[in-house]
């Protein structure tokens, strides 16, 4: 274990837990299709994709904030491309689409430039919501096509905020000084990803076990009140119990965040479902075998990441 | 030597970059031919189309893949011609201006005889982005010449939005390829072409909705 001693212990145990789940899932992917042919055909590719995701994210968390920011920039780019491919745009908007991609560079570039500016976090906070908004709308007005103007400027900015700005918070969180959290900055980010994924899984399991009353029949007909509440309580309790190992939160603040973060994740999930229904697709792309698109996998995180970041920053982190 | 470099360039450089920029979602990839002689026929809106189609195949088939491309655009002589013929692997075809009695399809026919897989765009030109124009009959004449060759129809969506004709820079969008079941010679040029066009129109319904006006 000496070679791994630079990784804080809670994070190491977290990684070991993820590795255990991956191995269990892989065994299931071999055993179940043989036991019930035809029923589990999706599980093999799904598990292979989980291995790739875990190795990429885990590797980047260990490698440091630079590697993690680059990984998240690529993920944001892929998610934004999926969004702009499916969303209605106009022939004149090619330049606007390019500007939207430029925001990926600036948004993540700001994470690297804290020696250039006094506090690049302050600039990060306003760049995408305010300045990308202004520049893209002004450029569209300058190009001059007026029919569908308001709809398109809204659509493109919506995509940039969700895919780039909100997801970028995960990368900025990695810049928290390691001394500020018991398992370092990587522990904070790991905990966020763990909690949001746990919430998805717990909702699914409670829903399968007790689900009766549909919670959003028109947006996500498989979701139930029983699943949502069971998942929320499970996640909140796990958050509260594990918070001392990953976060510098007091018990009261841990309870507040444990309650708030899964709710944000739930709403991120159903919001993305509503958008997919509006666009008339089931998956945002076929990039990840067994899962669908990048945006399908990120849905809860697009809402949970900024809420987790802001509450942590307000309650505990000196840096932000 | 050049073939080895081409294969690794496709595997390690072209395909990863194409995947990053265009996604390369394929629906019905099991219908793609696994050996030549064969013909792939797709709608055409962008130079990106050829790259997307080449990336759909396993790289060991790369030496067999021959995009049929307009001589007046890709075979104007000099270094450009060398790259088109040897790196991309095109078979040049004359669009208009052929002498009487000259068989413009000769190069394509010889490639089929060698057991290669032709990539053809029956529209003959990229045209307006994301719109399909009239099909030319060349592909029907090739199947008539070699009736054992099957034509696999492919509908490509999105490349015309990434890099339309006359655009200076391209914008990344996901490209979807919908691949249909192979078709064989039916005995009539126009019948074959109309059928091919109808098949590609049908494949279009399986692609994700495209909202671009």
Question: Overview of this structure, please?
Answer:
The complex is a heterodimer of chains A (320) and B (213). By secondary structure, chain A is mainly α. Helices cover 74% and strands 0% of the residues of chain A. Chain A has ten helices and no strands. In chain A, helix 6 crosses helix 10 and helix 9 packs antiparallel against helix 10. The two termini of chain A are 33 Å apart. The model of chain A has no long low-confidence stretch (mean pLDDT 93). Chain B has 213 residues and is α/β, with parallel strands linked by helices. Chain B has one domain. In chain B, helix 6 (138-145) crosses helix 8. The N and C termini of chain B lie far apart (46 Å). Chains A and B meet through helix 3 and helix 4 of A and strand 1 of B.
Topology summary:
The complex is a heterodimer of chains A (320) and B (213).
Chain A: H1 9-35, H2 43-63, H3 65-86, H4 94-112, H5 120-143, H6 149-173, H7 184-210, H8 225-246, H9 251-279, H10 294-315
Chain B: H1 2-22, E1 25-27, E2 38-42, H2 48-56, E3 65-70, H3 71-74, H4 78-88, E4 91-93, H5 106-113, E5 117-120, H6 138-145, E6 151-157, H7 159-162, E7 176-179, H8 189-204
Parallel strand pairs in B: 1-7, 2-5, 2-6, 3-4, 3-5
Antiparallel strand pairs in B: 6-7
Keywords:
A: mainly alpha, 2 domains, B: 213 residues, alpha/beta, 8 helices, globular
Describe this structure in a few short sentences.
Chain A has 320 residues and is mainly α. In chain A, 74% of the residues lie in helices and 0% in strands.
User: How far apart, in Å, are the first and last alpha carbons of chain A?
Assistant: 33 Å
How many E strands of chain A? 0
- The Rg value of chain B, from CA coordinates, equals 16 Å
Largest interface: A-B, 24 and 20 residues
Structural class of chain A: mainly alpha
Number of folding domains of chain B?
Answer: 1
Poorly predicted runs of chain A: none
Oligomer: heterodimer
Q: Which spans of chain B have pLDDT < 50 for at least 5 consecutive residues?
A: none
The global form of chain A is: globular
Shape of chain B: globular
Biggest sheet of chain B, open or closed, and with what strands and sense?
A: 7 strands, mixed
Biggest sheet details of chain A: none
How many β-strand stretches of chain B?
Answer: 7
State the share of residues found in helices of chain A, binned by percent: over 70%
- The domain tally of chain A reads 2
As a percent range, the share of strand residues of chain B is 15-25%
Strand content of chain A is under 5%
Q: On the 0-100 scale, what is the average pLDDT of chain A? A: 93
Count, helices of chain B:
8
